[in-house]
Amino acid sequence: MKKFEKIYLVGNGRVADDCLKEFYKRKVNVTYIEIFREKFSFTQKLCERLQMEFLHIDKNNVKKFLLGIDSDALIISAHNSYIFPSEVVRKKNITIINLHIAYLPQYRGMNPSTWAIFNTESYAGATWHEVGDGIDNGRIIVQRKVPIMEDDTAMKLMLRCFQTGINLFKENLDSFLEKNYHAFLPEEANTKLFLAKELPNGGMLDKEWGVDRAYAFLRSMDYSGADLMPLPRIELNGKFYEITRYKKELKDVVENIEKEDNQILIKDCIDDVLKSSERWCLICWLRELEV
Fold first, then answer.
1. What residues does 281 pair with on adjacent strands?
2. What letter does residue 203 receive in the DSSP assignment?
3. Residue 169 exposed, middle or buried by CB count within 10 Å (0-12, 13-18, 19+)
4. Residue 11: what pLDDT?
5. Which of 45, 74, 127, 205 is deepest in the core (most CB within 10 A)?
6. Residue 205: CB partners within 8 Å, gap ≥ 6?
7. How far apart are alpha carbons 246 and 224 in whole angstroms?
8. Distance CA 50, CA 53 (A)
9. At residue 188, does pLDDT exceed 90?
10. Cis omega before residue 186 (within 30°)?
11. How many angstroms separate the CA atoms of 100 and 140, rounded?
């Protein structure tokens, strides 16, 4: 099977780094392309250590660079937010394979872990697919489900999906390199596309929700302090608050929790504000928003 003449890796973070290490382990020469400059580029240091070519190409110049590729090339897109222009995707000498951390065709676009948790799905996933003209709607090469645990946050689930994607990459890299795989287009290829600006319920906790629904909402927006999503909010008596912390707790424990400085603890009115179940309550620490 004929192999590609040139291989590029586009992405960032640990996912791209692990892909780079796997290429090195197999003695495959790769050019890493950084599109969005990082303040501290650990990947650049890794490329230097592994003696791999590193290129920083400004976003405005990426299209021109890619259109200038005339060799038979493979582009691996791993944890990459750059959207490849249709002119590049349609080039017959370029194959682009992308990792999306969802079990496609569901949850195309941004923050798939958020939406899977908010919609109380039983599983998320990781999918390697060919890049098509649309977003996350190309032919699927390989995918694997990732079970969603009862207390999973968006961050925890996202990291497990990324790790699953890395594992799939290692298991299928040979078939990627030789283009020796069977890709298929799912029947529902054009499912809903989630945008970065979209938030579950507009980012507002609904006071009419029960504990399970509210808990799913809070977990769906929980990225452990990372700047991936704003803090969830709630409206109480005409005032708006950010929910800085939350906890699911047994009812008989709630009464012993002390209010913290500069925070409001929904405790005394928990049954009115967040409908409780027979055994469980949700405790939310709030910070009032200035008008």
1. 249
2. G
3. buried
4. 93
5. 127
6. 214, 217, 218, 232, 233, 234, 243, 274, 284
7. 12
8. 9
9. no
10. no
11. 10
Distance CA 118, CA 214 (A): 9
Residues 6+ positions from 193 with CB-CB distance below 8 Å = 108, 109, 134, 135, 136
Task: Work out whether the CA dihedral 39, 40, 43, 45 comes out positive or negative.
Answer: positive
Between the alpha carbon of residue 276 and those of residues 118, 119, 154, 218, 270, the distances in Å are 18, 19, 23, 15, 7
**Which candidate, 130, 159, 123, 158, places its Cα nearest to that of 144?**
123
pTM: 0.91
Query: By mean pLDDT, which of 9-13, 144-148, 274-278 is the weakest?
Result: 274-278
The answer to whether the beta carbons of residues 215 and 248 sit under 8 Å apart is: yes
Three-state secondary-structure class, residue 168: helix
Residue 45 DSSP label:
H
Contact present, 204 and 223 (Cβ < 8 Å):
no
Would you state the pLDDT for residue 253?
64
Instruction: Please name which of 135, 142, 147, 243 lies closest in space to residue 190, comparing C-alpha atoms.
Output: 135
Q: How far apart are CA 71 and CA 37, in angstroms?
A: 26
Q: What's the Cα-to-Cα distance from 266 to each of 224, 227, 243, 274, 281, rounded to whole Å?
A: 21, 25, 11, 9, 10
Is the Cβ–Cβ distance between 273 and 244 less than 8 Å?
no
Residue 247 has pLDDT above 50, yes or no: yes
Q: What is the mean pLDDT of residues 75-89?
A: 96
Return the SS3 of 29: coil
Separation between Cα atoms, residue 178 and residue 215, nearest integer Å: 45
